[in-house]
Structure formats: structure tokens, C-alpha cells
Amino acid sequence: MIQDLVLTDFRNHKTCRINVGNGRNIVITGPNGAGKTAILEAVSMLAGDRGMRGGPMSDITRFDGSGGFSVFANLADDTELCIYFNSGDTNRRAKIDGESAPLADLAAHLRIVWITPREDRIFVDSASERRTFFDRLAAGFDSAHFGRVARHAKLMTERAGALKNGADAHWLNAIDEQIAAIATAVAAARLQYAGEINYFLHDAAISVDGMLESMIMKTNAAEAERAYLAHLKENRQLVNDKMVVDGVNKSDFGVFNRQLNLPAHLTSTGQQKTTLLNLILAHAKLVHTKTGAEPTVLLDEVVAHLDAAARKKLFDELGNAHAQVWVTGLEATTFADVPNATFVACENGNVSNIINP
Which CATH class is domain 2-111+293-354? Predict the structure, then answer.
């Protein structure tokens, strides 16, 4: 868990220092535009990827983008993590305990998951948005999963190019064999994650609907890979200059609200938000059970769309979560009942840290 966080020239924060103390729930409050979400974004980048906003590094640098930025965290086990970006570099860099390290190595020290107002619509948005969201969750256990998803997308692009250019069968066979192997691994990881997260979900259920996922459930991964390879070889035509082929690139995740006996996308906005929060907290419990680690959960504008009863239930869940939870909101009084909390007041890029008031 994070004990100390220091931002330098990050978004609208010239310098931001937060001492968490023994608080397991960090509540950041303040007016719109004060820099609350920027703090969560900074924490999210300590996972080694581009963070919860995914913006260009020059946009993250304070004001004119001419300098750079850094995010430093001291963990409870005294490990020091740092993400930094310097003007002139093409990407961010990482340090672990003061030594340069690959970005991918950061995930071994902090398992981070987040939801923002953008994810509030995840159940009604496109299938591609849901795939990205759930693939990110699944990658919390299988670090190679996101890489396989990216590799699959690249191979599909190469396959489309090969078909357009009239590549011979030997070249297409080689591409299709790679696609079938990677796609089967992606589908298997999705099914495994859905099965495991469902154990910790009481009011909802997750399913995966897709051609290859269905093949695996009916037979096994090896048989599914062979059948999918045959499907690829039988579908090498282009329609309107586009490939006609099914696979993990068209799969979708379904979420069912057990209390209302309805798919999540047919429930109200508030009920969708509650389901989403239950999903994230169940994910935290799954991480703790499988790895022994306590994940970092980032909840931006967490109480939006929640009534008083839903807020109380959320705060009770936060007290039982095996995680360090960072939340943002407008008024500190709204979060008065959050247990074991450290409060941070944020205004115009300035923070006032109040430990366990």
C-alpha cells in the first residue's frame, strides 16, 4: 500500500505531498477543477501503463508541457516507486528503489484498478469498451493478457493487409496459426476471470459471449484452437475491402443484476453504478485471495448517482475491503462515515492533508 505520495509538475499540481498514515481509505475532496482526479491519475500511472486518462505525456506536464513531471510513492514495505517524464523524451520512465527499471516491473509492486465517470456507462457503451475494461481487469492476474490482446489486434491488421495484397497461402497459414493460438489464450483468460470474479459477486453475474469462448466451453482450449484455425482458413475473403471473420475481437461481456433479475444495461443509472462498484470491490477481494496482495482501488466521483442507502452500503464495503481505496468527491461531509479514512482537501492544485480526523 502507498504511505506517501509526491507529485511534481503533474497537471495543475506544482508540488503535491500526501501522507496517508495508517488510513486504508483516502478521501480527496474539493471543487471541480481543483486537481482531485489528477491525483488519482498519478497513482494509476504507478501501474506502469498510461494511466486512467491515457493522455499524451506532454499534456500531463504542468501547464505548458515544456518541462516534465514525476510521481513518487513510498510503499508500506519501504519500496520506492517513481514514474517520471522529461521534455525531449518520447515516453515516461520508471525507477524502483532509485534504480532504473522497466515500466512492466511496477505492476509487481502495486496492483491498481480504477473506475471514473467514463466507466459509469460501461454497461450501455459499445462491446469494444467493455472488452477493454474487462481485459484490463483480467490482466491484473495474467500480466501477459493485455500484451496478447494487443498482439492479436496487430496480427489481424497484418492479415487484412495480406488479403488485400493477395499474399500466398503459406504466408496466410503462418498468420492464421499465430492468430488462432493467441486468440485462444485471450478467450481462455477471459473465461477464467469471469468464473473467478463470479465467486465474489453476490448481486451480479459476469458472462462472456463470443465464438471462441463458446468453443472452449463446449470442448477444451486445444480443440477450440484447431476449430478456430479451420474457421480462419475458410474465411479469407474481403467484403467492401474488409475482412469477414469472427473471433475474440467481437466478443462481449454480459453483466446480469441478480437482485432485479435484469441485464445491467436495462437497470437505472444508479443501479448500474452500484453494480459497477460491487464489481470493482469483488475484483479487489479476488486479487487479495489469489495473490495475497492488497490492491489499490481508485474511485473517481464515486458517489455520483448513488442515493443515501447505496452510499451507506458502499462505505460499509470499503471498511471490509482488503484494499487501499482512493476516492474523490465534492464535499468532505458526504464521506463522514467512511471508516479508517485519511482526508485530503484539494483546491487549485494545493492540498491539505488531514490524517484520520
Answer: alpha beta
